[in-house]
Amino acid sequence: MAEPTRPAPRRGAARGAGALWHRLARHPRAVALLDRLAPRSVRTRTTLAACASVAVVLFVASAAVLLLLRANLERTVETGAREQAQAVARLASGGHLPAQLALDHGTDFIQVTDHAGTVVAASQNLAGHPPLTGAGTGPGTFDLGVLGDEHHQRVTTLTADTPTGPVTVRVGASLRTVDTAEDLTTAALAGLSAVLLPTVGVLTWRATGRALRPVEAIRAEVAAIGDRDLDRRVPVPASEDEIAGLARTMNAMLDRLEAAGTRQRRFIADASHELRSPLTVLRTQLEVALAHPDPQVRQELVAGALQDTERLQALATDLLLLARLDTTGQDRPGEAVDLAELVRASVAPGGPRARPVTVHASGSITVDGNPLWLGRLLTNLLDNARRHARSRVTVRLSTDAATGDAVLDVANDGPAIDPADRERIFERFTRLDDARSRDDGGTGLGLPIARDIAVLHGGTLTVEDGPDGVTFRARLPRTRAR
Fold it and tell me: What is the pTM (predicted TM-score) of this model?
């Protein structure tokens, strides 16, 4: 019997569903509802993704298995029917065709008709029945209600020449076994999928939860850390995986934050101390000058107050520059600066106690940077060298043949710096024992400012021993060819 055909989906229904979806998508409440229903946790999304992936794989694999199974079974049935039809055709060609034909195993019926459509031979179950309808030239499905058993049939049709004329042989084989095997396989695959999908979901849910448990611990610890609890650290899981790397990175960031907070608090305390002392002296001088009757003494006190005011102004300028350098970050300025010209412009008499400066600069050396800040770097190094030099200051500008960096050396023949103090002098408000005097030692911000400027420009500033004495060496990357 012919298979019933399924009604085609109506286009109007599909269009109506699409229109409804677009209408819902434009509705704010519907969008909000869909957004709330969407899974938000990584655990839920991972579980759903795993289940969906397994479901797709199972569907494709099941479809492939069913198609291959049916094709293989149908091919077997068709082969048996064709062999039966060929045997009947040989009997007909030899003129030995009996009126009633015997059925082989797996064959449901046989019918032989002549060129006029008259049945000349048939199997016992089709004896006395008219020719089958719906017959084609090849395998197909026939209306077999005459057999009293409606199921799928695979019909093979052959044409044979006989002494009385051509005849058509039709042999039908039942597909009941094929259908049964397909139904059993479908049920087995459906049962397997019903067991496998929940299993994958449960395993994924538990595995994801176990994997994300350290992340939750890290999140909880970070949420509990305040601006006064920077000494706390997140737990590092024992597993050497990405989460352990994340925890170590978080702890390294907390180390930097703690160090920055400590440095900031120390800087504030030092700045307060540095500002309090000259302000106290300045106020004392002004109060004495206001109360003292001698004009000469008053003039000297006012002159001293003016010096302290200039020192305060210089300190405030340095503090503002440090704050600006701290907030600049890694945004390097990109203006081309000729260091040779900057050296020649910066080397000038520095007051009555200035030492002579010898400059060794070979050609033009260009770096990318801010000319004002680079000038401040060189000025601070020169001021420091003049303050500590006994008789001479030497400035050398060259290029490192190995790295191509610009090398700026500012040396003086003053007292050597202990190796243990060569990093400490770059800390803010640091003065060594031979520079404790505020008149000679400055504010303790010149060298820290110079190093910050060098680092901001992608370079370094270190202290080394050189042929010209104590040498402050700044390395700056040269301008790349554009």
Answer: 0.52
